[in-house]
Amino acid sequence: MKSISFSTLYCMASITATFANEIECTTPSKFTGSSPKSTIYVIMHLQTGDFFTQLMDGMKQQAALVGESGVNMKIMSADNNDTKQAEDILMAAQDETTVGILTVGGSIDTLCESINTVLNTSDIAVVSFDFEGGACSNRQVLTSQMDDDIARLVLDSAVSIEGDGINVGYVNDLNFAPLLKRNDVWEEFKVAHNWNQVFFVQNASEFPTQGDLQSAISNAIEGTQNVSSIYAPWDYLSVTTVSAKFIYGADINDQDIAVMRSSTWRATAGGDPMYIGGALTRMVAKAAAKELLEKEIGIPSILITQDFLLENNVTNLMQLVEALPEMALPGFVSACWIKSIGGGGEESPVTEAPNNEIAPVPTPATERPSSANMLGLLTVHVGVILIVSFLLT
User: Fold this and answer.
1) b/e map of 190-221 (b: 16 or more CB within 10 Å)?
2) Using CA atoms, how far apart are residues 258 and 313, in angstroms rounded to an integer?
3) 330 upstream amide cis, omega within 30 of 0
4) pLDDT number for residue 244
5) Are 248 and 150 in contact (CB under 8 A)?
């Protein structure tokens, strides 16, 4: 067996290191900036409200950072019309530059025919956010906020503050998939903690005005006695209810933060809509590049309490993300060829709850091994093969 000097081994290590450094991230051909530029369509059931405005802002910001020169993004709204949303999906597929379609809202009953037509007749990827009723096809990617966890985070907080055996009120609208999921957790908590639901203001989105809804909630409270708290699992409902008892809500934006700081709204849970929008764009881009292996992806949420906002002097979403960087979803559904608007590398972060105030939901393992990890394995293997070859010569 031939002996090997330290200098020889050092040289071999240098060669493998150089080899590793010269291997670069490969951008998928659809996103190399060739003309015409690829297009992602966003087909929305509805785009009214602060959440959707910020969601679209995040989508567009992220689209500019996909691949070598960004991707075109075209957003269409069906204005709450199921038929139009289905037609918009088919229209988007007619564009020869389309590589991916993101649907926002809608259901299996109204959109599956269009989605299946696109998936069966083209190479276009389809990702659906807040889609009701399950997947239309095993090629469709479903994603949403983790609505079960949004409810559980807030209601756990309510239990710790309010306790068991109390009278509670409830405001919701069970015509929407996310609110149905949050309702399931509410029903579970009512039984587990012996909460007595003394009123339910339902179909809340159907009231003509916010004032009409507020009157209905006030009338419900006046018709009962000793209501300790109210659960309103949508920020529109939470804001409308804050003139009443202690509120436990859901979702977060600048207006919500302002209201929470000076009202009876004690806790909420959710994510920053802008960074959720960025994550949705990344999902579509990775699906179009056939690098997204998971078909169901939950978007992490975080608990935010009134006490946390006051103690950290948080007055808007920007300051909240600075205080809780995990809200930017760094490293969530990322790739070496996409610069995330939330920062971070290719791996999902591990976060801890500071001072027991924040309880982030663990990020699901949605990524295959990253190019950086594969490169590291390749470098080690090449080095080992060379060394063994020298030793056995």
Assistant:
1) beebebeebbebeebeebeeeeebbebbeebb
2) 11
3) no
4) 63
5) no
Whether 144 contacts 180, CB under 8 Å:
no
Q: Which 8-state DSSP code applies to residue 144?
A: E
Residues 6+ apart with CB under 8 A from 241: 171, 214, 217, 230, 232, 247, 249
Residue pair 277/223 in contact (Cβ under 8 Å)? The answer is no
Give me the residue label for tokens 């903690």.
Answer: 193
Residue 36: what residue type?
P
Query: CA 213 → CA 74, 79, 210, 219, 240, distances in Å?
Result: 35, 22, 5, 10, 7
Residue 348, pLDDT score: 42
Question: Mapped to the 3 state alphabet, what secondary structure does 177-223 carry?
Answer: HHHHHHHHHHHHHHHHCCCEEEEEECCHHHCCCHHHHHHHHHHHHHC
Residue 240, number of CB atoms within 10 A of its CB: 25
CA distance 339 to 228: 47
What whole-number distance in Å separates Cα of residue 233 and Cα of residue 248?
A: 7
Which amino acid is located at 309 in the chain? Answer: L
**Are 216 and 241 spatial neighbours (Cβ–Cβ below 8 Å)?**
no
CA 90, distance to chain mean position in Å, is 25
| Rounded-to-integer distance, Cα 214 and Cα 201, Å | 10
Q: How many CB atoms lie within 10 A of CB 7?
A: 8
- As beta bridge partners, residue 16 has none
pLDDT for 82-119, tens place per residue?
Answer: 999 999 999 999 999 999 999 999 989 999 999 999 99
Q: Are 267 and 154 in contact (CB under 8 A)?
A: yes
Please tell me the pTM assigned to this model.
Answer: 0.78
